[in-house]
Amino acid sequence: MKKSLIIVESPAKAKTINKYLGKEYIVEATVGHIRNLPKSKLGVDVERGYMPLYELIHGKGEVVKRLRELAAKADAVYLATDPDREGEAIAWHIAQELDGTSDKVFRVLFHEITQSGVTEAMRSPQKIDEHLVNSQQARRVMDRLLGYKISPFVWKTVYYGLSAGRVQSVALRLICEREAQINSFIPKEYWSITAEFKTSHSDPFLGKLIQIDGIEPNIPDEKTAQGYLNEIPKKEFTIAECQKKLVKRTPPPPLITSTLQSEAANRLRFSTKKTMTLAQKLYEGVEIGTEGMVGLVTYMRTDSTRLSNEAVLAVREYIYSNYGAEYLPKEPRLYRKGKSSQDAHEAIRPTLMQYSPKTVRKYLDKDLFSLYELIWNRFVACQMSPAEFEQITVDVKGGEYLFRATGSNSQFRGFLQVYDDMEEDTRKPEDEDPTSKVPTNLHPGDRAHLLNLIPRQHFTKPLPRYSESTLVKELESLGIGRPSTYAMIVSTIQERKYVEQKDRKLYATPLGIDVNGILVSNFPNIFNVKFTAKMEEELDRIASGRHSYKKVMDDFYQPFIRSLEKVEKNTHHIKKSLQEVTDEVCELCGSPMVIKWGRNGKFMACSAYPRCKNTKHIVAEEHQHLVGVKCDLCGGEMVMKAGRFGQFLGCSNYPKCRNTKPLTIGVKCPKCGEGDVTARLTRRRRTFYGCTRYPDCDFASWDKPVNVQCDTCGSPYMVSKYSQKRGEYLKCPKCKAEVAKDTALAAQ
What we know:
By secondary structure, the protein is of the alpha+beta class. Helix 1 (about 10-20) links the parallel strand 1 (about 5-10) and strand 2 (about 25-30).
């Protein structure tokens, strides 16, 4: 008896699906794409309507051969790749390779890999959606044309090996523009005044000065503040108004791709790439004891907050059973579709309510469990009752001065019982005004005694640097990229060393700033937000059948190639503009030295090149104190050098002496006391700090050690931490005590 063949991308997905289907099915995995554009050439025939010239990926020959053999024997072939445009394209490529079987090849979409999800999908097979295939193909060809045309231009102007991307370069532009805004920002001083009051029958409370003669106060400097501090105590204060009202806070919607990445970053400290890798595993299936492989969440690349009726009914039953009737709204909560939402999939949610986090915890590793619990809690919370608070507002007036105290008391936790605020640090940053709990026994007309006045100096701040999650949020709001591309965009600009991450913030590197400057100044109509967002809309129109592949490609390629032809004539001038002339003179020929870009960073070279090929390393300012370090092999000077894994010390007598030393951070190893702490990189290029005596000493820390002794437990060192609310602070790795960084360093 013939069997049906089901083809998926992932072995884990194949294993999970195989569990739900009978022996009449064979499930095979391609392990990703089987065809791609060639690496060594453009691979796009522009003259023939932008025809892509695909070829089989190296090593996939045996996979395709086996699929052909199985397909020839099967009575039907079901392509069950991921239910998005990329999955549709993979399915199309597979169908193209299965010669002579097109009449029995079907497409099935598994939005969730469960018994019901798989069974339902198999009941309604369909043909491959050519519009989705063309949309994904257009994205791929656009990126290939731009990358292969622009990258050589970047090589000529900066250095060989760099690359540019259609969407990634716009993301880089956003980061560079934010960097420029921060660097050019001029802080402006202002002051606030907070008063401490007390009535004859209340506890003390704090109120902020909000009006002077009915106008919002403008206190630009200390002199002005002191004038008010002298005048305010002369007034008599009374409670002018006291309002109490019930405020309801509704739960957030279920997670979509962008909010999953954002919440995982804020709450779990996961990168976008890590989040999507873990979510893919949860979708494809994990081993749950004797039940075998189980798909725990629905498809994770989605921009829709829509939920199926079955899922809503199931979670409402769960809420009623586990939390009680008061936590369940009378009607299911519906969430509106966003303006740019394609609404192709449901929101990200657990597939079955029987697999609560408590039930599956022992089967998942720490990170998988954390992400699953996040998805579960957000889904349950989105269908729960609102949280209720009693909001208290008290106005205290004395003459022309009006102070306001605000506070709230929880009346009913509602959805917060499941999805509570999980801020990294709920304490207020030092430059904010102090607050206190507002007493509930205050009444209009009560005499308020002024106990204290608290002036505080503030400075305006620029917009914060992007984090991975806020960058994704910005891209989404601008219509750039789609759920399937966010993680790739963020990881690519970091892998290319255009952007680096420090304290979970994205900083444009000097290389990124220069490359962005070249691209934006020479291709202003291509590497801009509006054009890129327009192209995304064009791709959506292909997917819906409203535009043809050829028309969209013309809209992209024609303005792009015209810009490129103009710019290529100025390549030499652009390259010269990037070179910085120095006051240093070449010791070999006497010509001025200039600063150029190279594969390992900036370096000094003789301006008489190629007649004179003299070069020098540039010592970073923060490491100039290392000049004068002697080589312990030959006695020569150690100089700063840069390699593929960062900066290091190398002997100036190279190549006669090849001695090198790691670049330390000036902290003795706290574990062995003999080695020094140095910054190192993991295989995935994440920075950590370890001992120079490794492997004899295995000290390692994700956080940077600082030579500050902990006053609480006596630990010889603390580590540097950062939060958006507190800024930089130090934390003891032993007792977890925390202290402001400036305060700790000043006390040393």
